[in-house]
Amino acid sequence: MVQVDTGTLFFAAIFTNNILLTNFLGLCPFLAISREFRSALGLGVAVVFVMTCTAGINYLVYYHVLLPLNLEHFRYIVFIVVIAAFVQLVEMTVERYFPALYYVLGIFLPLITVNCAILGASLFMIIREYTLYQSLAYGAGSGIGWMVAITAVGAIREKLQKSAKLPRGLEGPAITLIITGIMSLAFLAFSGMIQIQ
Amino acid sequence: MKKRLFSVVYMFLITLFFTSMVSAVKLLSEERIQVNEKVKLQRIVLNVLGILGEEAPSDAEVLGIFDQRVKTISAQERTVYVGYAEGGRTVLGYAFPVGGPGFWGPISGMVGVDSGATRILGIAFYRHSETPGLGARISEPWFTKQFEGVKLFPIEEDRKIFYLKPEGTGRAPNELDGVTGATGTSRAVEAFLNRELDRFLADFRTSLEKG
Amino acid sequence: MPKPIGNAQIIVNGLWNDNPVLRQVLGICSTLAVTNLLVNTLVMNAGLIFTLSMSCLTVSLLRRYTPMRIRMMAQTLIIASYVIVVDITIRAFLPDISEALGAYVGLIITNCIVMGRCEAFARNNPPWPSFLDGLAVGFGYALVLLTIAMVREPLGFGTLLGYRIMPEGFTPWTIMIMAPGAFFTLGVFAWFIKAYFPKTGEEKKEG
Fold this sequence. Notes:
The complex is a heterotrimer. Chain A has helices spanning 6-14, 27-33, 37-66, 75-97, 99-105, 108-113, 116-127, 132-163, 173-188. By secondary structure, chain A is an all-alpha fold. The model of chain A has no long low-confidence stretch (mean pLDDT 82). Chain C has a domain at 7-149. Chain C contains ten helices and two strands. In chain C, β1 and β2 (163-164) form a beta hairpin. The N and C termini of chain C lie close together (9 Å).
């Protein structure tokens, strides 16, 4: 049982322990998609939603199904199945009821399933023994943190593309990584901000 | 229709196969994992009691030494490890597990105190989820070594057993260095560890009185 | 149908031309976090190589029987099973390292490379070449990450595999232990590779 209050956990997940900038999770789509601010934002919102919900669902499954049956070593399989199923469900719902949204987000949704960050959030929540509310707060915070990171880097890259002339070797992954590194450094500064009583 | 049925059956079969494989591996290694856990705990106990010193004995040796020198008792609903000196007659000290909320997750530690519960022999933090490079530094030797020799007394009003101050600013012997940049973790540790130590002292006194 | 290529070429491709990290910066999520200590990186990479090669082998063996529609699910199941085996094994034989690796071993499942290789190669090729491909790509990946670890650990801790290698007066670059250090190291590495060894095999890349 963690005594950190849920609100602090939420803010810390966004800033001081950002799932991408501190825990390195969710990098793959990050490097491919973050070229454009809009698509980064869209993907980010989808990730927040999926991450929060799956954190909650996985919590319930783990503590009420897996543990009582002594099957917790299967959690990797179960969690990813839950995530995949949930994303599939979301995709079907969005396609049917919000076709405009589907047009924008369509291709991203399947990508979310293999986003390390989503599985990572669920796994971390188990290791850190959060309660249900803490898990939801952590999932939401991590999702928002991921979104903040990806949109910020996306915006910087877009700007860089328009205005700067980079040495050929730096283009693409190299400069993205360095920008991410600087951003990670900047976020470290937040660690003085979060206080607990 | 036939294709669908085949898909379902296929999925079912390979799921069965692979989950069996995983379960088999788990069963085979279960015992080993448990032994590992046991040795790990025993090693920590021996370390905080100061029985091990600088060497790092093998797993088998740890089991042997623990058997000879430590007795596990249960007192006031907690497990206490009683460490004996070489001869096996005099009590060296007591080790007991402590736990409390850290910043990111629960922190588990082990404290060793001398036979009169007057000072700390050693501590170790062996499980936590703190930020690597920041809060996680509480498991580093420079941090844990500070606790050796700290005097224990029941906590009154606003006098704590120890304080964690910004690195380098501590003046009294019980003002120890916190981890720079890990205010959350440092505060959490200061809070729960003081509490746990106080609780142990209270229990200890009661046990002593009972004899 | 792409022309079948020789086994030697497969290995070279895996290690260099198609090296997932250097070319596309894929799949670094799970391992980058542990590159601040060389020994952790070694164990993590061993796990990945095992998972990758065994998954490719299995997917390839089953390729004629797996219905198209469910192949993603099947692949995920196969990969996840091997990862669990790796996790249990590390926990049984290297418990301290297992604690350090934490949840990252489980994240090998979502590692883009494993799924990517199964889809791109193992699905369409016979077992032995698939296995080799998995091994080669895995080793290529490992090489890059080990290089990063060999920069991060000495600069950040002053040690390599636990042995002190930096001179006494060396002030460790703590930044290297923490997240930014990993990003910078990999970024500079990618820059170096791209500047001196620009993409050559692009036209030759098979599907």
